[in-house]
Amino acid sequence: MEVMMLLVYDQPGVMQRVMGEFNRKRINVETIVVGKCEVPDRARIVLSIEDKVKALSVIEHMRALHEVIEADLVDHSRHEAYALLFSREGVCRVTGSVDEVDAIVKKSQPERYIQAMNA
Question: For residue 73, what are the contacts with CB-CB under 8 A and spacing of at least 6?
Fold first, then answer.
């Protein structure tokens, strides 16, 4: 799994243009996290992509977009994961390494869950 981190202008339409590049290249984005960041009027987009070759093929296209300020693949040592597990008892939040979160999700077998990667 590859994690791509983008620093973008925080304005309408940026997500559509970024995701349009993935659509044109026929690349499936496994997870996506978006939010304001430490830089005023900017946002970070963190995407996970299963295939390294595909991630490498789109990174230069990301850097060429006017709305993208920075685009980098994140070193595997910095990957983190989180999950929200839903059951009759309520919601459980889990964070940790990718392997740790995978193991907890498999072991707990929640009724529903969402899992994402970050860096």
Answer: 2, 3, 4, 5, 55, 56, 59
Q: How far apart are CA 28 and CA 25, in angstroms?
A: 9
How many residues does this entry show for the chain?
A: 119
Tell me whether strands 68-74 and 42-49 are parallel, antiparallel or unpaired.
unpaired
pLDDT in tens, 105-119: 999 888 898 888 776
CB 118 within 8 A of CB 6: no
Distance CA 19, CA 54 (A): 14
Query: Which of the 8 DSSP states describes residue 14?
Result: H
Q: The whole model's pTM is what?
A: 0.80
Q: What is the per-residue pLDDT across 17-57, written as a single tens digit (0 to 9) for each?
A: 999 999 999 999 998 989 999 999 999 999 999 999 999 99
CA dist., res. 115 & res. 112, Å (int): 10
Q: What angle, rounded to 10 degrees, do the helices at 52-64 and 14-24 form?
A: 140
